[in-house]
Amino acid sequence: MKLRYIGINPELPKEVIVLLNEDTALKEALIATPFNSIKKQLSFLSGTTKITLEDQVSDSDDILVLHVLGGG
Amino acid sequence: MERYLRNQSTISIENQKLLKQKTVVVVGCGGLGGHVIEQCARLGIGRIICYDSDVFDTSNLNRQRFSTEDVIGKSKAEIVKEELNRINSEIEVISYSKRLDLDCMDEVKDAHCIVDAVDRISTRLMLQQLAKQLNVPLISASIAGWYGQCTVVYPHDDTLSKIYPKDIEQGIETELGNPSFTPALLASIETAEVIKVLLNIPSNLRHQLLVVNLLHHEYTLIRL
Hints:
By secondary structure, chain A is mostly beta strands. Chain A has one helix and six strands.
């Protein structure tokens, strides 16, 4: 699995959104919190089911990791 | 039309006249919204409707376009209206010192697009719903520190539902803050998208999120 960090220092512990690329089976955005646990546990935006990345994503998947930006 | 001379040929005379007939709703008159509103006025968009329930405070002075020391404590919406009248008296400005919500449909029923310049995630998702009900596009941006993002949401796209969780109100801006340069840039991107929407110029920010990293100058388009 390849994690691709977009925008923000990946060492900052914070909620993140994970977007899988279009070719993967998972197309929904995911949230992980805190950031440094992303490899361990994720939850779907639309539900409460907990999953592990290793169960859902193959080594060839490219995953984008984004922090939640909310300022205006 | 002399005041719009420098808009040409980016905006033709014909399109300049078209902008005069358009209505834009800007929700939030702070970091993003202040710049968007000013740019829309200078571009000659005929009617600008803006909403903000807040008053200016000292912490706004670092970045918000219409914040000055002498307006601390005054309504953002009212100050914006005063300033826009000085910038362009040929356009109509309607400002509301209150929050926009789904009960305000009648006030914004003539909008051609809505600009999201708010700082609460629940409000952003409400604006997406409002824009859907009005059947108009929503131009959305958000910021935190050196970072920002922008996308254009057409009715039924529901793009914001893909990038914002429902159970939090704020993002990493609570840690990174909001310096002056990030809202100014993201507001300019929002305004460019407003013009594309109003003039039917295709935008590649529909179904895509532009993520801006000003620290390392990385600009990434992510398909949503």
